[in-house]
Predict the 3D structure of the following.
Amino acid sequence: MNEIVNKVASSKLEVFDLEDYFPKEELLYLDISQFLFEGFILKEKEFRMALKEFNWNKYKDVYVYANCSTDAVLPAWAYILITSHLYSFSKFTIQGSKRDLLISIYNEKLMNLNFSIYKDLFVILKGCSSKPVPQEVYVIAIQKLIPFAKSIMFGEACSAVPVFKRK
């Protein structure tokens, strides 16, 4: 009887899995409308007082994405002021969506990785993910891999799509 050999496991393919860099910390939403009069109107004095009296401990060592759930028109300094309050609590804060926050986190992590370890290797940029890795992050990753990899495929080893080959 012939032994079944896993050719993928014994190949020279290196898998680059973006899921490995998914943040382990919580991603929390901060709705600005809670600090506004009737959820819509920014009265500066009351807004500043509400921020000063707010318990920011919930945001300790987590990533925060701040936005307003209402159609309130806010001055740019409103988000800046909120961020100044979050600064000593959160790991990082953005104005935007959860997706925007994930892209920002990934961007920072990928910019600090040593991609030279993929020099002259055959790399698969893993495509299936059980975590919500934004598509934009794959675009960042491929740009970091191209200067080093001999070839790059996207997907899974059993059904990868070639996307780059060094000439």
